[in-house]
Write a structure and sequence with these properties.
five-stranded parallel beta sheet, globular, 12 strands, alpha/beta
Length: 235
């Protein structure tokens, strides 16, 4: 009998000390669009339509919802100032309201950010990362080989004031991703440098483009960004 109670006590201790089940979170990030006041002078202007990075992200969110079910934890991070500026100076419509409507449709967590620190803070601290790990992180927006540019050609011509540079990636905490996390940049040139630094900083592979990506053909391809001629995926 003494042996029985001892075994029962050990079993209860094991059950009460068992770690909580790790949950998964799927994160999608949208940068802001450019303005025609800067882009009209170029041979190939960027972002004739305001929603390139919104519609593509929305399609991806729909895929994640169908794949992982109605209770999956999906978070959409959107660079708000870019869409406020675009609405005020070009489209003259409620772009923020259009973006916010996606929250109810897909039951997601919509987080607007205004600077790089806010963006980094969410993956690090937006959820208790000992219990909620990031299984998916995808970026839709302008980029070059060294950084994500959230406001490219939106506040200044052909430049950016708000970005996530590869030298800042060590601010992202290690250990916040699942072991098999899917990470991809749908912007231009990421695999040429930033993908390597991402892996060094986070321990996770980030797929990116060698060369440019093209959103202009998205409507004909289900809003999935395409590689430009001569470009390829890598990382």
């Amino acid at each position: 009998m003494r042996y029985f109670y001892s075994a029962l006590l050990l079993l209860l201790l094991a059950l009460t000390s068992a770690p909580a089940e790790v949950q998964r979170e799927y994160i999608v990030v949208s940068g802001g669009p450019s303005l025609i006041e800067w882009e009209k002078y170029k041979v190939a202007p960027h972002d004739r339509w305001w929603g390139n990075f919104i519609r593509s992200a929305r399609v991806r969110i729909e895929q994640l919802r169908k794949q992982h079910g109605p209770t999956a934890r999906i978070t959409w991070l959107v660079y708000k100032p870019g869409y406020v500026r675009r609405a005020q100076r070009q489209d003259h419509s409620d772009l923020i309201g259009n973006i916010a409507s996606v929250r109810a449709k897909y039951g997601l967590n919509l987080v607007f950010f205004s600077d790089t620190s806010q963006l980094i803070n969410y993956p690090n601290n937006g959820q208790p990362r000992d219990r909620v790990k990031i299984a998916n992180f995808e970026f839709y927006g302008h980029s070059n080989k060294a950084c994500f540019m959230f406001d490219y050609s939106n506040e200044i011509d052909s430049g950016s004031k708000v970005w996530l540079h590869e030298s800042e990636l060590n601010r992202i905490h290690r250990g916040i991703f699942t072991h098999n996390a899917f990470v991809k940049s749908w912007g231009c040139h990421t695999a040429e440098s930033m993908s390597k630094l991402w892996r060094q900083a986070t321990g996770k592979k980030m797929i990116g483009a060698f060369g440019k990506t093209d959103y202009a053909r998205c409507p004909a391809n289900g809003w999935i960004p395409q590689l430009s001629p001569g470009a390829r995926w890598g990382g």
